[in-house]
Specification:
about 450 residues, alpha/beta, Aldehyde Dehydrogenase, Chain A, domain 1, Aldehyde Dehydrogenase, Chain A, domain 2, 7-stranded mixed β-sheet, 6-stranded mixed β-sheet, 20 strands
Amino acid sequence: MAIATINPFTGLTEQEFAAHTDAEVDARIAAAQAAYETMRGTTYAQRAQWMRNAAQLLEDDVEHVARLITIEMGRPIKGARAEVLKSAKGLRYYADNAEQLLAPEQLADPSVVGASSAGTRYAPIGVILAVMPWNYPIWQVLRFAGPALMAGNAGLLKHASNVPQAALYLDTLFERGGFPVGAFHSLLIPASRVEGVLRDPRVKAATLTGSEPAGRSLASIAGSEVKHVVLELGGSDPFVVMPSADIDKAASVAVTARNQNNGQSCIAAKRFIVHTDVYDEFTRLFSERVAALSLGDPLDESTDVGPLATESGRDELEGQVADAVAKGAVVRVGGVVPDRDGWFYEPTVLEGITPEMRLHLEEAFGPVATVYRVANREEALALANGTTFGLSSAVWTNDAEEEDWFIRGLDAGAVFVNGMTASYPELPFGGVKDSGVGRELAAAGIREFCNLQTVWKG
């Protein structure tokens, strides 16, 4: 894939960029290593001030960066703006909390290990490579960079090739905030050159958010080098609705949970599993509200759903729906590529999904929802867990015992009760099964790229 901004609303190439040469990549790795050597000697207070500066710069640039997001990957402008502001808030969270999250811990009675004092401390590990996707081109990166830099590490970003302007904006953000030159830089390189960077001995670990195949490839390379990885991969999140739920609210939230960011989110609700007693009401309300979504120019403030980020992604989604319809699925809403320029797909609701259909097992990365009817909670749970993915999940019920039952039974990295999945700096984020390993965000996330060092004093 060329490193280029191709506007998904028009299909036109806005700008192309030359890849960094091997010499340029080596210089950036060297700069990152030098920055790390400086960073590890700085205080939390100093790094926090630099991080707050970066957050303020990002907030000041909100309109410019939001427009970049929209032009590069088609996210409606109001959502793009919210992403930028959320990212600034996330940076401030780590500026305010990193020292506490990484505070040393002491044994209450060090004499049990024959010491005068003993405990653990968190130390940075060095240069971290981040391989990031296009769907949240600012937030995905900064939810890694904020904690990594506050821990004293340096970062290198290999961003998706269709969001180079976002990558170049982030390339200078932290340096502008006061961090040492090289503390965080972007590498404009194709995916084929990631292996060389990861095998460089100056790069100590890697994080990837993206597809399952990409995650497996990165993990294999890192494993051969005995380097730590954090992987946040695909998802096929269930959204379970039981009879005691507030059906009107569940249907409204379901529309956002499936269609925000044009349906291109790993943690979007994708499979709507509804108890038969409320199935007809939920599906009617859900379908009506999906049909009312505004499809159009993502720079228009009134647009709810814009084009998909890539033509290949739109074609993949079209193929998944066509396969389901050919095998008997029923289209309640949408199900077509609209007759217009741009890589659009109509927001869609499908019923009658069966195991032989691609949509039953594959992740649908776009505004396509599948609705399942179940007879009881046992069937709902079996269907929810009947996937290779396990990123997040949502359960709608006002029965306290039922809440606990689903929380205990769902194979997912998160369970949201009477709400939709979202990521917060204050809570760990990540999945199980083929949805990844490790965690981002909160205490667990900032500690992923630290050396948990035992300190014993006689």
